[in-house]
Write a structure and sequence with these properties.
Helix content: 40-55%
CATH class of the domain at 542-727: Alpha Beta
Strand order of the largest sheet: 10-11-13-12
Distance between the termini: 105 Å
Number of helices: 36
CATH topology of the domain at 542-727: Hect, E3 ligase catalytic domain
CATH superfamily of the domain at 542-727: Hect, E3 ligase catalytic domain
Shape: elongated
Radius of gyration: 40 Å
Number of strands: 13
Largest sheet: 4 strands, mixed
Length: 850
């Protein structure tokens, strides 16, 4: 015998309170029934996912209600199948009564109606045991997942009247439990919805089982479901999203799947799909309100019990699930949902945060990018520049972004530029923020300068860890430099340089002689500046003059014939000449020039490998640096590490030394003492590669690099440089290597001496320019501005002027690179203009071809 199907129907308000039978004509109370919901509850594929709960927010209450219900079912089952063995028993629901079989058949045929009281108002036979030792056949889930039907309220009342135990009688006053899903997955949700959507219209039945009134069929506004179906889904949402244990077990990948599984074992794509399915159900407002109410209750519970709620790694999955909620993109839910969630994440222990970082590092690129954009959206919506410090929520979202940045550094999921916040960079008061940042650094006793600079990754992690224990008054956005783009960091470096100059001037004032000397220098410099300003033409561009100066100077210093640097034709990189005969102070001069170019915002045409900028910031060299700087050498070392066909000693025949050729002579440098006599084997090849990388990147050019770095830091050696990544330092110094947007250049272009945007020659000129390939576009840009690199603010920020240089003639176009001017004659036709322009840019040298 199985549990009556009536016990598996969800309770409704219509049968919450059983009607009292009339003494003249006892009528069974009306009850709504849906075959679709019954199909869900009896579906063997869904049975293991169902659960009876007393309250969606109290697991203890659910367990207590289930225990009372199991006791009542066992007693009722014993009475129907065994009975009291008294042939004179008057209880028609007892097996001993001759009418029991007819009663049982009637119950099975009318399983969707509440059971009827036995004569005398007793459900249970007083002669049957109160706690029978009986096992109900069938799957255990059939009993565990069943809920207490409203008729059991009468059962407990009858038991009380018949002298039943108190634990059973107390169930009459308890709130009626409801059947819900224990957890939610995309497949489980779809199966439940499909079953419920197939339900027929509701009907009202009487005691005889005849249909009296048919309820209206579900409409599109109702989502095509009955009220009982909606109640089942809403109760399931309420239970899962308001209970940590239920949410942590949701969206899990089956244990049978072991490949390509996220470390959290969450089915990440299905989380967003399920959110979308829930929020798309009609009536949408009802489902949205249910979801938000449940999450609010969960967040409130976590706020009070955060330590115990996340005491293990498996309990952190709920934070990943909650952060995928698309409602977080709506500012209407920022205060109620997003804010408390962010604050909870920042309150997690360092160990829990490390787990989240590990999980985020394994995110697919689309979902990780969406997470970062969601956090950035909250920051942009709530950031306000002003003298007051940010509130707790803004501090919290910045710290969570710090965790995501650390995860991105581990997993390299998205480009680092995805963390730039345009609103922050556009609205921030950099001077006020710089003061707050310096105070924060002084409080933390951080040593000035770059002597102890760590990598940007470590700097961000340290800043995040330090800020996580600080208050908003001790918070600075500069402690999270990944939020700031290179343009913003250039402004910070200028402010930092001004502060350094002021400090240097204050130090010089200690000596009166230096003070007098400084005043004379300043007066003379002011006089010269005034004269220059008086002579300067209205169209002069001082930035272009500085750019030309640095380009010419650095072109001489970087020339391999000068002996300071070597040049690799395959990679087009310049590197320090380890065998240079020039004194090291020449390398210091190069460092000073590079620092001055960076300080003045001048884009220079130098090509150093990323290794140089990493070492400027204090990063240790790696094999990847060798691969990018010397590709052939990097491939050889990697092949040595990957070799699996025998011992590398027999194949590569290498020892722990390096042969260096310089000026026609070859010398041997040992990587370790006695290295020439130590063969490279499978056992020590990793040590060999590490020593080789250290030698080629650091030791071989140690004196030259120290001098260059010392000169560079004399100009740019403040706090601000530590905010930059190696890639950003390269962009600040050399510009961006991106596709040239000539449309932006055209929009920002100026015209002179009769030319204008609608002039036929200008139209032909831009038509020719847009049709050029990338090399010729770079030639044109270098021809006019002395550099083919794109400034950080784009080509629209360049000074680019096309000036009429007389009528049609056979002269080639010329350029004034100091002023960014192209002198273009008014040629007779487009073909002649194209031929002369291409000839000029292809043969330009120095400052131009006249």
């Amino acid at each position: 015998m199985h549990v009556p199907s009536a016990a598996l129907a969800p309770p409704s308000s219509d049968d919450a309170t059983p009607s009292t039978p009339s003494p003249t004509a006892p009528v069974r109370p009306r009850q709504r029934t849906t075959s679709g919901l019954q199909a869900v509850l009896s579906d063997p594929n869904l049975a293991h996912s169902l659960q009876s709960v007393q309250s969606p927010h109290t697991d203890v209450a659910a367990q207590t209600a289930r225990a009372r219900f199991e006791h009542a079912v066992r007693r009722y089952y014993y009475q129907l199948t065994v009975g009291c063995a008294d042939t004179h028993c008057t209880n028609k629901l007892c097996r001993a009564n001759p009418a029991c079989q007819a009663s049982a058949a009637r119950c099975r045929g009318r399983s969707r109606r509440p059971a009827r009281r036995a004569p005398g108002g007793h459900f249970f036979c007083p002669r049957c045991p109160d706690d029978p030792d009986v096992a109900i056949p069938g799957p255990a889930e059939a009993l565990q997942n069943a809920h207490v039907h409203p008729s059991l309220a009468s059962v407990t009342e009858s038991a009380s009247e018949s002298g039943g135990d108190e634990s059973t009688a107390t169930m009459a006053a308890a709130p009626q439990p409801a059947v819900v899903l224990k957890y939610i997955t995309k497949d489980l949700w779809d199966q439940s919805v499909a079953r419920l959507a197939a339900a027929p219209a509701l009907t009202l039945t009487d005691e005889a089982g005849t249909e009296e009134v048919a309820a209206p069929a579900p409409t599109a506004e109702d989502g095509g479901m009955t009220e009982e179906a909606h109640k089942f889904l809403l109760d399931s949402i309420k239970h899962v999203f308001s209970t940590s244990s239920a949410l942590n077990h949701s969206f899990k990948v089956p244990s049978s799947i072991t490949e390509n599984v996220h470390p959290s074992r969450l089915d990440l794509p299905s989380i967003r799909e399920t959110y979308a399915a829930i929020l798309a159900r009609e009536p949408r407002a009802r489902y949205r309100r249910c979801l938000t109410d449940a999450i609010e209750l969960l967040l409130a519970h976590l706020d009070l019990n955060l330590g115990s709620a996340v005491e293990s790694k498996s309990k952190l999955a709920q934070f990943l699930i909650l952060l995928e909620n698309p409602l977080l993109d709506d500012t209407a839910f920022h205060e109620s949902l997003f804010r408390p969630l962010l604050q909870l994440i920042t309150r997690l222990s360092p160990r829990a945060k490390a787990v989240l970082v590990q999980w985020w590092a394994a995110f697919p690129e689309p979902q990780f990018r969406a997470l970062v954009e969601r956090l950035q959206g909250y920051l942009s919506a709530h950031y306000h520049a002003g003298p007051t410090r940010p509130d707790d929520a803004v501090v919290a979202v910045v710290r969570v972004l710090g965790l995501c940045y650390s995860a991105n550094e581990v997993g390299n999921v998205v480009p680092y530029a995805a963390f730039y916040n345009a609103t922050l960079c556009a609205q921030m008061n950099f001077k006020d923020e710089y003061r707050a940042w310096r105070k924060l650094l002084d409080k933390s006793s951080r040593a000035p300068g770059l002597a102890a600079l760590s990598s940007p990754i470590a700097t961000a992690a340290t800043a995040t860890a330090t800020a996580s224990s600080s208050t908003p008054d001790q918070f600075s956005y500069f402690s999270y430099p990944f939020l700031l783009d290179p343009v913003a960091k250039a402004r910070i470096m200028h402010i930092d340089a001004m502060v350094q100059m002021a400090q240097e001037y204050e130090d010089a004032c200690v000596s009166q002689a230096l003070v007098v000397h400084t005043q004379k220098m300043l007066l003379a410099d002011a006089a010269r500046t005034a004269q220059l300003r008086g002579r300067r033409a209205a169209h002069d561009d001082p930035a272009a003059c500085k750019r030309s100066f640095f380009q010419v100077l650095l072109a001489q210093l970087m020339d391999p014939l000068y002996g300071l640097f070597t040049y690799d034709e395959s990679t087009r990189y310049s590197w320090l000449n380890a065998a240079s005969l020039e004194p090291v102070r020449q390398f210091e001069l190069v460092g000073i020039v590079l620092g001055l170019a960076l300080y003045n915002g001048v884009i220079v045409d130098v090509r150093f490998p990323r290794l140089l900028y990493r070492r400027l910031l204090g990063d240790a060299p790696t094999l990847d640096d060798v691969k990018s700087t010397w590709p052939d050498l990097g491939r050889g070392l990697q092949q040595l590490l990957d070799w699996a066909d025998g011992d590398v000693e027999d194949v590569f025949m290498r020892s722990f030394d390096v042969s260096v050729a310089a000026y026609g002579a070859v010398r041997t440098v040992e990587l370790k003492p006695g290295g020439s006599n130590i063969a490279v084997t499978n056992a020590n090849r990793h040590e060999y590669v590490a020593l080789y990388v250290d030698w080629v990147c650091r030791k071989s050019v140690e004196s030259q690099f120290r001098a260059l770095r010392r000169g560079f830091l004399k100009v740019c050696g403040g706090y601000a440089l530590g905010l930059c990544r190696p890639e950003e330092v390269e962009q600040l110094l050399c510009g961006q290597e991106v596709d040239l947007d000539m449309s932006a250049l055209e929009k920002g272009c100026g015209y002179d001496d009769g030319y204008h945007a609608a002039h036929p020659t200008i139209r032909d000129f831009w038509s020719i320019v847009h049709a050029m390939d990338l090399p010729h576009k770079k030639m044109l840009l270098e021809f006019v501005t002395a550099s083919d690199r794109v400034p950080l603010k784009g080509l629209g920020s360049l000074t680019f002027v096309v000036q009429r240089n007389g009528p049609d003639c056979d002269r080639l176009p010329t350029a004034l690179t100091c002023f960014g001017r192209l002198l273009l004659p008014e040629y007779a036709g487009k073909e002649k203009l194209k031929r002369f322009l291409v000839t000029a840019i292809e043969n330009a040298k120095g400052f131009g071809l006249v």
